[in-house]
Amino acid sequence: MSIPFGGYASPEQIMRDRAEYARKGIARGRSVVVMQYADGILFVAPNPSKALHKISEIYDRIGFAAVGRYNEFESLRLAGIRYADINGYTFNRSDVTGRGLANLYAQQLGMIFTESIKSFEVEIVVAEVGEAAEDDQIYRITFDGSVFDEQGMAVIGGQAEAVGGRLKERYVEGLPLPQALDAALTALTEPGGERPPVTQIEVAVLDRGREHRKFLRLTGPRLEKLLEAAKESQEGARQPAAEQAQEEQASAEQAPGTAPPIAPEGDIDTGSGE
């Protein structure tokens, strides 16, 4: 039996090589954060480009975020829009769901990963906002078609583990939008580093309080106002913490069992009535 040129590689080795190739490509980008807040779902991504979006709308209640090769995840985004439009028109708009889109992307990415010479270097999130917070859905889909049902938040691309760890330290259910945005930006910023300027971040929300289309891209003065509100709330939180630290320090300086200072003789009340 003839041996193919270049030697033999087992299917397991081919899959491992494809997975390693995809992971390296995805890790070269910067992370994207998707998280719940009090009124919906927040998307935050460092992005210096004004023309190429990492965050987009798919349908009325459904948003899309991606990292990796732009041309690859853009083709997935367009496929999702076509799927949503056809199903919404043919059946009912309520039949278009985040779960259905996640399954579509899982099938496409799984087929590409197993059958193509080169796998897609992408990781995506599909999020759907519900009538209440417990109805929100966040799905993370990896390059090999694996689907993860995330609870509360998801981080993709770049240093996802480190960013996710910093986000978990600050994440609380029901955060107002300014505080949620502050938590996301803090998680995306390396310790000791500076946050990217407002012109180099991409922010959008799925706001359950909006009529019909829930997706809203936050830019310009609206985003600057949110960042200012987040800064004020952060400073307000620091002040009580600083006061508490001063009180603890003052109480620590007076050791337990220490007698209070003795008043001067002329100030002692002897009770003689003189």
Description:
- It is a single chain.
- The protein has 274 residues and is of the alpha+beta class.
- It is 41% helix and 20% strand.
- It is built from 6 helices and 10 strands; from the N terminus they run αββββααββββααββα.
- The protein has helices spanning 11-27, 70-90, 98-115, 160-170, 177-188, 220-253, and strands at 32-37, 40-46, 55-59, 62-68, 122-128, 137-141, 147-150, 153-156, 201-207, 215-218.
- A 5-stranded antiparallel β-sheet has the order 8-1-2-9-10. A 5-stranded antiparallel β-sheet has the order 3-4-5-6-7.
- The radius of gyration is 27 Å and the shape is globular.
Distance between the termini: 123 Å
Structural class: alpha+beta
Series of H and E elements: HEEEEHHEEEEHHEEH
Number of helices: 6
Oligomeric assembly: single chain
Biggest sheet architecture: 5 strands, antiparallel
Strand content: 15-25%
Describe the strand arrangement of the main beta sheet, using strand numbers. Answer: 8-1-2-9-10
- Taking pLDDT < 50 over at least 5 consecutive residues as the criterion, the unreliable ranges are 1-5, 265-274
If you average the pLDDT, what whole number results? 87
Structure summary, number of beta strands: 10
In short:
With 274 residues, the chain is α+β, with helices and mostly antiparallel strands. It has helices spanning 11-27, 70-90, 98-115, 160-170, 177-188, 220-253; strands spanning 32-37, 40-46, 55-59, 62-68, 122-128, 137-141, 147-150, 153-156, 201-207, 215-218. Helix content is 41%, strand content 20%.
Considering the chains and any ligands shown, give keywords for the structure.
5-stranded antiparallel sheet, 6 helices
